[in-house]
């Protein structure tokens, strides 16, 4: 069967190759794909959750070490908050995970504990009843942590550090129940401990640890509503609880809580691609549970979150890939039910652009490689994007509005080119010449969503058919330019276009 035939079958829902369910983990990177549910209509469903150290503009991560790991074994990296945002007394100082690790390595934990215990509590006095309540809560949380046994020596060593940290935070909270930093850091300890829970029946459930972590985050944010890190990690904990419940009503409520917390995190810290990416993932999961009449609105909201993350960090491959998966799912839904302004073929093509870009940025990720095999034939090869834009006549960028014509444009790894009457026309933008690409609002231009491509030779203005269509062109041009700037990633993108085009011609 030819590749074109395969594409047709994919788009009609007759053949759905299963992407790789395993994910290699590069060094110093923690990633969180979610499992494919059997009932999901989309077979391209490998969203990847962010952690705080996801974005590394300096280059591609080292080649993955060892074999593939099951998704359930992934470890989330969560950094504790180092500095308080509101002044607190020195007597209730809390400790970060990094400090604890350093102290244990240096053998100073005993002296530090003694120092903390000897420091007089400067916090305000609380009633005996309040202190008793906090002591009981602390005891319940400590019982959960003390019951955890790691599955190997590394896990046991890690859990000893977490238990030591929990005792410190419990002591700090007993001295000062309003110590929001101690509550926040203790929530992190509980959340990290949940990853150490093994399959032993005597171990506390992961859900119980995450639920207790959520309580600590709730208390911390009530005391200090500006802790955006707390809202972010709280949302991750809620998401992990929701994943355990499948597609139930309880899971739906948890996903809604997670989206609300991601929204608060973004409101407090708008410059966070990770939070936007995870917000989009939570919405994507929620869309699979809610009634069909609500799904389209939630999916569009998820798309906007992924796109916002990419606009903050053009090489944020996780958000790029996740946007590709949600567009693929939308294409499948549209092919079955219709009702969209954009055709399924156009959505499939858009999905393929993002997945190809993610693969070019991170060629070592097996999930991206598998996804590219699924969607490669949906690209309009030998181009990455083909569509229509309204452009001025040749040599007259300030021509009267009536002289502007809607013509075909093509984009590949080399640049953007106008095609008129089957031949290459005047408007041509080489990728290396681009300075910036942005939407613009200029009253001298014809009506409609306009795009400004600023090059070393001057500005080029084009008009799109709709704002949604404008976003797809902006993303495509920016992604190609970003990949070009990454050097060898551009060679990979070039290979996708040329090599697969040669295969299509000979198939």
TrEMBL record:
Regions of compositional bias (Polar residues) in chain numbering: 1-11, 42-53
Skewed-composition ranges (Basic and acidic residues): 17-30, 73-92, 126-137
Transmembrane regions listed in the UniProt entry: none
A Pfam cross-reference name: TOM20_plant
Spans annotated as Disordered: 1-137
PANTHER family, sorted: PROTEIN HLB1, PTHR45005
Protein name per its UniProtKB record: Hop-interacting protein
UniProt organism field: Lactuca virosa
């Amino acid at each position: 069967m030819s590749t074109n035939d395969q594409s047709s079958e994919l788009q009609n829902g007759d053949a759905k190759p299963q992407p790789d369910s395993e994910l290699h983990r590069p060094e110093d990177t923690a990633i969180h794909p979610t499992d494919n549910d059997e009932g999901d209509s989309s077979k391209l469903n490998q969203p990847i959750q962010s952690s705080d150290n996801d974005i590394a503009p300096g280059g591609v991560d080292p080649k993955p070490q060892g074999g593939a790991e099951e998704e359930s074994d992934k470890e989330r990296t969560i950094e504790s908050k180092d500095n308080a945002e509101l002044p607190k007394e020195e007597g209730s100082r809390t400790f970060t995970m990094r400090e604890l690790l350093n102290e244990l390595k240096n053998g100073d934990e005993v002296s530090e504990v003694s120092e903390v215990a000897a420091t007089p509590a400067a916090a305000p006095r609380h009633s005996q009843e309040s202190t008793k309540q906090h002591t009981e809560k602390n005891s319940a949380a400590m019982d959960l942590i003390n019951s955890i046994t790691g599955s190997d020596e590394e896990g046991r060593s890690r859990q000893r550090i977490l238990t030591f940290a929990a005792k410190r935070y419990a002591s700090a909270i007993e001295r000062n129940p309003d110590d929001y930093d101690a509550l926040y850091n203790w929530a992190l300890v509980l959340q990290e401990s949940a990853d150490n829970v093994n399959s032993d029946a005597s171990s506390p459930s992961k859900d119980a640890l995450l639920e207790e972590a959520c309580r600590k985050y709730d208390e911390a944010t009530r005391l200090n509503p500006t802790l955006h890190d707390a809202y972010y990690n709280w949302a991750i904990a809620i998401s992990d609880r929701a994943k355990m419940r499948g597609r139930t009503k309880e899971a739906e409520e948890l996903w809604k809580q997670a989206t609300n917390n991601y929204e608060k995190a973004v409101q407090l810290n708008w410059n966070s691609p990770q939070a936007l990416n995870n917000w989009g993932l939570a919405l994507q999961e929620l869309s699979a549970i809610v009634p069909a009449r609500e799904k389209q609105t939630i999916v569009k909201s998820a798309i906007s979150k992924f796109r916002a993350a990419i606009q903050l960090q053009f090489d944020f491959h996780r958000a790029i890939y996740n946007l590709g998966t949600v567009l693929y799912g939308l294409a499948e839904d549209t092919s079955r039910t219709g009702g969209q302004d954009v055709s399924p073929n156009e959505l499939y093509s858009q999905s393929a652009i993002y997945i190809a870009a993610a693969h070019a940025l991170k060629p070592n990720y097996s999930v991206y490689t598998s996804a590219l095999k699924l969607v490669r034939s949906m690209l309009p090869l030998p181009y990455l994007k083909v569509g229509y834009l309204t452009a001025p006549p040749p040599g007259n960028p300030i021509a009267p509005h009536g002289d502007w014509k809607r013509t075909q444009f093509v984009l590949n790894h080399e640049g953007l080119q106008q095609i008129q009457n089957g031949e290459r026309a005047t408007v041509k933008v080489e990728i290396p010449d681009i300075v910036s690409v942005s939407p613009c609002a200029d009253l001298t231009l014809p009506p409609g969503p306009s795009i400004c491509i600023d090059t070393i030779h001057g500005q080029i203005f084009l008009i799109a058919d709709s704002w949604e269509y404008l976003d797809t062109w902006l993303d495509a041009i920016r992604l190609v330019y970003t990949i070009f700037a990454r050097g060898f990633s551009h060679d990979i993108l070039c290979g996708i276009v040329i090599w697969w085009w040669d295969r299509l011609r000979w198939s």
